[in-house]
Design goal:
BirA Bifunctional Protein, domain 2, Rossmann fold, 3 domains, 13 helices, about 30% helix, binds adenosine-5'-triphosphate
């Protein structure tokens, strides 16, 4: 993990938050290549979850919601971590992490009685901080989709089964943030709420588990680093009847996430939330949230199957999985073998001889043209070997070099990141060549 963290900082993927002020406990800022990777990942998810399906639509709800939402959802009552403090070293621990010991794991000091900490961040709306203006930052994006169930039915005339999909920030006042971006207090979720007839819920749960597992595999995660794990009854959240986690074998340097047993930790959870949420919102809001089935003339509350993944955890998993070090001609080669759809930069355009103005101009012209279809960068700030190594480290699938010969034969050299093979391509064919290799960006 230390190597991934170092690469992320060195190559502009992820920086410690508020770095010049000494940081702010486990907050992270995505730099230029980090944000490209993250956006590519979200685009891939949106394409697979919304655009490629006939039964899922997207939405984008507000982060701040009426506090009644959190009463209805059970988050005010149930969204707690039990924690203890060490009376000697003053460190705080989650009770679930203590493995039945009643002594401090750091200094063996005595511990306080367990106390409950609500994980929701509080804030105030308006100029006056009073009880009436108390709001919460949403701890999950899901509720924004549940409270809009009626609006969606009325405006989009959907028939069951159908889903809503959303990507957005969520906030949890985690007691033990850590392991880089794995557990933070501010993070992004990508969630689908899939509404089904209760009789279909078990079948649809299985389908979504497969669908979501395959999404990671198709984008390049290695089989041996991904697994499914079904929750036992005592692990289930207050709203869930069944849940399977997709877990990734994260390269945590310590024992990692102890609750999950070593480095295998949750990447995404796929749960059967039953009709808990819709019934609760109907009860607290007084609004009718039942579904009317025109064929059977029945009214009922649909069940909800929820695939809920973390954007930041997925970025970390893809980075970890793609990272490797090789020895090439006596030198270390750090390589990110990211899937082409995820790679931050698709093509790097590198002139071999910057002293020749015609070469620089030709390289810049090619870059300008390719940019219309792919995210490309132009770089002439080092010798070619170093430029290749930089692109390998950020996972760029192709480098295109322009040399003296290019001025005469109107061809350029294209080098593939994965095979390290080079081939000469005619300049008027490069756009078609990359469309074939990369697909439409
Ligand atoms: P964990 O058991 O790791 O705390 P969770 O079961 O509480 O996670 P969910 O409520 O199922 O998580 O949230 C869905 C997804 O959101 C998780 O699978 C994870 O990818 C992401 N997520 C949840 N909490 C965090 C966090 N603190 N930091 C980063 N991502 C998170």
């Amino acid at each position: 993990m230390d190597k991934i963290v170092a690469l992320c900082k060195r190559r502009g993927f992820i920086f410690p938050g508020s770095d010049i002020y000494g940081g702010l406990s486990n907050t992270w800022d995505y730099g230029p290549y980090g944000v490209e990777l993250k956006n590519n990942l979200k685009r891939s998810w949106w394409k697979a979850s919304v655009h490629n399906r006939d039964d899922v639509l997207g939405m984008d709800a507000a982060i701040l919601m009426n506090p009644e939402v959190w009463k209805a959802s059970g988050h005010l009552e149930n969204f707690y971590d039990l924690k203890v403090d060490c009376k000697s070293c003053k460190k705080r621990f989650k009770v679930v992490d203590l493995k039945e010991s009643n002594k401090c794991p750091e200094c063996s000091g005595d511990l306080t009685e367990p106390r409950q900490f609500n994980l929701m961040f509080k804030t105030h709306q308006g100029a006056v901080e009073e009880e009436a203006s108390l709001l919460y930052l949403r701890p999950e994006t899901a509720q924004g989709m549940f409270v809009n169930f009626g609006n969606i039915i009325d405006s989009c005339h959907l028939k069951l089964p159908f889903g809503l999909a959303q990507i957005g920030k969520a906030f949890r006042n985690e007691i033990t943030p850590g392991n880089f971006t794995f557990r933070t207090r501010e993070f992004e979720q990508m969630e689908i709420e899939y509404f089904v007839h209760p009789d279909e819920a078990d079948k649809k749960l299985e389908e979504w588990i497969e669908e979501r597992y395959n999404w990671y595999i198709n984008l390049g995660i290695k089989n041996e680093n991904l697994r499914k794990r079904e929750h036992s009854n005592d692990e289930l959240a207050h709203y869930a009847r069944a849940c399977t986690d997709i877990e990734y074998k994260f390269p945590f340097s310590s024992a990692g996430e102890s609750a999950c047993g070593g480095a295998w930790s949750e990447l995404e959870g796929i749960a059967n939330r039953t009709d808990f949420d819709l019934k609760q919102h109907a009860k607290i809001s007084g609004k009718d949230l039942e579904y009317f089935d025109a064929e059977s003339k029945q009214r009922f509350y649909p069940y909800i199957i929820e695939p809920s993944g973390g954007v930041d955890r997925a970025v970390l998993a893809f980075l970890s999985d793609a990272y490797s070090e090789q020895e090439v001609r006596g030198r270390k080669r750090v390589l990110l073998s990211l899937h082409k759809d995820l790679a931050p930069v698709k093509i790097a355009i590198l002139p071999l001889l910057t002293k020749r103005a015609e070469i620089v101009k030709l390289a810049k012209d090619i870059c300008g043209n390719l940019k219309k279809q792919f995210y490309c960068v132009y770089d002439d700030t080092a010798a070619i070997g170093k430029l290749y190594r930089r692109q390998d480290e950020i996972g760029t699938p192709y480098c295109l070099t322009v040399d003296v010969q290019s001025l005469e034969d109107k061809q350029v050299t294209v080098r593939s990141r994965d095979s390290m093979q080079q081939e000469r391509i005619s300049i008027d064919q490069v756009a078609a060549y990359f469309r074939d290799k990369l697909g439409q960006d």
